[in-house]
Amino acid sequence: MSYAYSIMYRNTFFKVADTCRAALCNNVFKRNAGHNKWSNIKHIKGANDQIKSLLFARFSRQMKLAIREQNDSNPETNSKLASIIEMAKKNSMPKDTILNTIKTQSNSKADVHWHEIKGPRGSIILIQSLTENVKLLKQNLNTLVRKSGLAYCDSGAKHLFIHKGILIAKPPSDLTNAAEDCIEHAINAGAEEVETDSDDLEPGHYKFLCEPNDIAKVRTNLEKYKYDIVHAEEEHLPLQKVSLSELEYEHLAKFINNVQGLPDVIQVYDNVN
Description:
Helices cover about 40% and strands about 20% of the residues. By secondary structure, it is of the alpha+beta class. The strands form two sheets. It has a four-stranded antiparallel beta sheet, sandwiched between helices. A four-stranded antiparallel beta sheet has the order 5-6-4-7. The model is unreliable at about 1-35 and about 40-45 (pLDDT under 50).
C-alpha cells in the first residue's frame, strides 16, 4: 500500500533472539507503526533482565547514530539525541548507561553504512549499520546472506522506502471526542498525518507521521496537549509491500534475527506484509 493512500505502517523492532520468544509473547504491545511483525520489545511490561538488556542496547545504538549524524553529543543542542534519551529514561534505562554511551560515541570514528538484501517475491531488507570496521561487518553479513540463500540487490533499493518520523501516543482521558480532536492536535503539532483506527494500534493509541527532523517538535507539541508518547522514532517505510508464504516468512525472520544480533547493526527495515 503506497504512502499516498495510507500511513498504516509498523515499526521495525525485530525478534532479537529465539530465547526471548516465549517471554515476549505474553507481554508485547500489538504491532504498531514502526513495530515490526517479527517481534516487539518496545512496550514490554515487567520484562526480565535479558530483554531489558536487549532494549537498552537498542537505545544505545540509536543514541550513537544520533550523535554521529549530527556530529553533536550534547542533547541540549541535538534534539534527535534528546528525544532518544527521553524514551530511554521512560523505559528505565540507567542514567550511567546513557552517559557512558554518549561518552563512548563522542570519541568514535564510526560511519553509517547501508546494506540492501533481496529476498523472495521482491522482498527487500534494508540494513543500517554504524561501524568503525566496515570490512569485518561486511564479512559477517556476507556469511549470513550466503547461509540464508539470499543475495545483495543489484541496484539501489533504498528509493523504494520513504524516510519518516513515527510517533505513537495515548491522548489524555478527558478528551470528549479523541478521534476527532487528535486530528486537530496533529495539525497544530506539526504532524503530516494521523491514524486513529487500525488493527496495528493498541486501543486508545494514535499514530502520527511527520518529517524525521520534526519528531522532537511534534512530540513536544503533543505533550502540551497531555499526550503520553509511547514511541518516537525515525523509520524507512516501504512504498509498496509484498506477501510471503509461511515458509518464506519464517526463513526471512531467521535471517533478520541473525542480522539484528550483529553488534554494529542499528536498524533493519523491510517491505513485507
